[in-house]
Amino acid sequence: MESNFTKESVINALYLLRIGTNPPADKYLHSFQKSKEVWRIAEELLSHQPSYPLHILTFAAMSLAKKTKNDFRRLSMPKRWYLRDRFTKHLLNAAMMPESNSLIVQLGICLSALGLGSPNLEEEMCVFVQQLSEQPEHIMALLEVLRILPEEAMSFDPEQHVESLESVRLALRSQSSNIFNTVEGFLERRDLPDGVLLKCLAVLASWTRTFGGGRLCIGHVGVLLGRKLSGLPFISDGHLTGSSVPKLRGQAGSNAKLLPHIREPVRNSLPADKMGSCENPGATSHHRAIATYSRQVPTDGC
Fold it and tell me: How many CA atoms lie within 13 A of 37 on its CB side?
């Protein structure tokens, strides 16, 4: 019965699974994730101060992600707005925790599930990007969410959420150039950690793999990536040479699969004046990218 689900019993079941195989504990947690108590207990776990261990927080976020996907159509608009604000707050907190990427990923899935089912997807994306585009730690979390969003769109079930999957993909596709500009702006900042390079690559790969049309933008941003890596030679027009690509892949290490659109050499890159949606590549402030979103936000808010 749902009355048997408590914060303490969930923590205890997770502890039992940490120390060994425990079918009753596993069954209990699966039942918990299907219960209405997920909303309350997972929120209590994520909000507790001092914070619980990361595996407990990650399980709470994972449970909320499953519940949000399964129950989306039963959520009222005020409930969706409340969850969006709570998920965002938890994401901001997680961004400040060390080694918290697993938690950030689950919270990103939570936010993606809410956003993909929203009738105001594009507007909410604008607000969200602006909200997380200042502090370096928040930007790193934002990049993880931006990577997840297209992947979630591909597994999105329109029968549970909205009438047309195609409308969701069109809404996201229309934001592709803004995402490219935003990532480019982040790469120009000097206060971000070294890991920003691979996260930016992951975002670009995710969006172009899902929606296409971004090959030229990736070639353009490849120049900025090259500037983040020491000793990469460039051909005369500023694009990466064939000899620099292996070095770029070497920096990526096991994540070299994130570079599917960087070829050896980049023969299809075009000059900056023919880059289409990647306009004004020479601008140096990340606020140019943020301004792109600012111009789209309605004056009366979302």
Answer: 19
